[in-house]
Amino acid sequence: xxxxxxxxxxxxxxxxxxxxxxxxxxxxxxxxxxxxxxxxxxxxxxxxxxxxxxxxxxxxxxxxxxxxxxxxxxxxxxxxxxxxxxxxxxxxxxxxxxxxxxxxxxxxxxxxxxxxxxxxxxxxxxxxxxxxxxxxxxxxxxxxxxxxxxxxxxxxxxxxxxxxxxxxxxxxxxxxxxxxxxxxxxxxxxxxxxxxxxxxxxxxxxxxxxxxxxxxxxxxxxxxxxxxxxxxxxxxxxxxxxxxxxxxxxxxxxxxxxxxxxxxxxxxxxxxxxxxxxxxxxxxxxxxxxxxxxxxxxxxxxxxxxxxxxxxxxxx
Length: 316
Known about the structure:
The protein is mainly beta. Strands 4, 5, 7, 8, 9 and 11 form a six-stranded antiparallel β-sheet that branches. Strands 6-1-2-3-10 form a five-stranded mixed β-sheet, with no helix packed on it. A four-stranded antiparallel β-sheet has the order 15-14-17-18, with no helix packed on it. Mean pLDDT is 76; it is low at 1-40 and 56-71. It is 0% helix and 37% strand.
């Protein structure tokens, strides 16, 4: 028997229940002839055998197909396995194992013994962005032993639900997307051009946010990505456009039912933004069908004294 054994596994993207089950190599003899199957080398390191479930394109009720056929790797360039130590350090114990989607073979061994280890699986597209993601429950890596983990890889790309492109401008906008179970936080990106460069970024833990710093009358585009606690970032979601309306000014004085004195009445207000022009309409009815005064203010003016009015009249 060889003094050193290696753990090998092949990730095969299947339309069926799962990809990739690690196979254990012990020289040229069949695995069944060795009593210590599953043990790693005796160099004080450990190994991990991985079983991964992968959703197929036409999902059944439980999300997985029962067909025993290979999954089409179109759109997936590489698959990758990362191994991390316990939080809060989350140290990557060995360099990531990475291989082409349709080849998917490699060796994962010589892992430092570490408790509460997490194994992460990602599948990347041609732009090297993560499309599928899965992580294991905490596992202990023991010297001279092989730990077995099972990972369910799911879609890691958020789907932006709102706003809807083409919606009429609103006074405010709320960006919302579906929650990604394995995401620890999200990055909402807002840009003034459809190419999303440059963009303003908002880091949040929930799957909805009303972005700040939005100017009325400007068209914006938004997109969201998912992130895990190890720094993995998903491919960007779909892109949606939106614009907001300018809010109405607020009349500060006079108050409701104030009595008009012979010297006239002083009007003051504050607006939704700086550097605006305002228009003042004075009428004798709430429908403003009988407008007595129509005044345009100067830029940034927030008060006006109205005289030449009758003291025994109700105005609006």
